[in-house]
Each structure stands twice: as structure tokens, then as C-alpha cells.
Amino acid sequence: MNVFKLQQGTTPLLISMPHVGTEIPADQADRYVERAERTEDTDWYLERLYGGIAERLGASLLVPRYSRFLIDLNRPPEDTPMYPGASNTELCPTRFFTGEPLYREGRAPDEAEKLRRRETYWRPYHDALQAELDRIRAAHGHALLFDAHSIKSELPWLFEGELPALNLGTVEGRSCAPEITRSLGALLAGQGRYSQVVNGRFKGGYITRHYGRPELNQHAVQLEMCWRCYMDEPSMSYDHDKAEEVQPLLEALLRRYLEWKS
Fold first, then answer.
1. Which end of the chain is more exposed for a tag (fewer CB within 10 A), N or C?
2. What is the pTM of this model?
3. Domain boundaries, position 210
């Protein structure tokens, strides 16, 4: 089953986009409430936003096909909470980001179905992710993973108030070399157009935490970007003008990341 697409690049950079998928398999569709058809909690349009940048930088791209409503590729396989003490969505989410139930009464997946989804959809993506990092390390001596995300600016069930526009996560500096956190953080702090934070509410999900292994010359960072940077949030539509404004900063951030040498 084709559950992802991988575009191999020529540089040490791999961009993962685990929440851009929008499909729900036909054999699962009747489990969900009608509202779920819109897959509203998608990290919308990131392939379009980053695609040209990735091509110019020679980066690899890993893009899933299926929605996070089926399975969340950025959660651990044992389904432990990412952020203890805060609202969390699960490996197989049961709620929208607004807190309402995602499934019809009595139709949420049982343990057997969760296991099937994990092995059918989650594991192939992660096997491909590690294999591509291994290929990159063999070719370049180190690998740089950039986990790209986006989210609605205000989601009271998940966080208070309005989220900063750009949220860089390096698991408190543990998922990459210290200089990477300092350098990328300085670049974000040095621009005045977008609010930003390093290791704030979103410090990095499972992908950043699991694959960020600086002791193995395998580094990982996550960028959680608010939709308002490149979208019209109420209509969930792509805003070309906004996108053109933020893309130079995203490209500068990725170029700075690529400048790091082990």
C-alpha cells in the first residue's frame, strides 16, 4: 500500500511533513462523525509552501497520504502522552483539536484496530524516515531532519491564548547539536515580522524526540507554524501573498540549518 511518497534529495536535509495527509480509507469512513470529512486538523498546504524551497536546497521530502485522524505519525507507538499535564491527542486520535469527539458513538477503534493501523500506516512511514536518514548519513556524514508542522493560531483545548507565529522545538536542545538551536533561534529572534519562541508550548513531538540523535550525527528540529503566516484561517484557504512573505524566512532558516557541519 502506498502510504507515503519520498522524494530523495542531494543534501543532508530531510523535511518530514507527518500531518499533511488528508485521506481517510473508505473502509474506515463510516466510523467518523460527518464533520471529520473536512479533516480540519490537517497541517494544510505545507507541501506547496515548502516544495520550491526544498527543490532549491536539494532537500529530501517525506509526505504521508493519510490523515492524522486515522493515525498520528508524530506520536509514539506505545501511545504515551507527548505533553504531560496538557491536553493531548492520541496515536489514533479520538477528538478534534477543539475537544469534540471524532468518532460516532461506539465506533472508536479498539486495541486490535489501533495495532492494525500502527503496522499498516505508522510503521512504513517511520521505516522510510529512518532509512532515508541512514542514506543521508552514509552520503554526507550527518543528517539534518526538519519536521514541518502548522496549526490554527488559537485552540483553547490545546493551549491558552494565541500561539506565537513560529514555534521552534529542539526538545530543550537535546535533539540536535547545541549550536543548531542557538543559530536557528538567533535567526528567528533577529527578524521582526513574526512572533517566535524556541522550546515553548511545542518542544518537538515524537519524530523530533526519537530521531534527534546528535551523538550519532543525526539532528532533528521541529517548526510549528501558525496558519495565519500563510493562510486565511477562517476559510482554511491558502493565501498566496502571505505565503510569499514567509517563504524567504523559511528558506533562510533551512539554509542556516544546512550550514551546520558535524
1. N
2. 0.95
3. 4-259
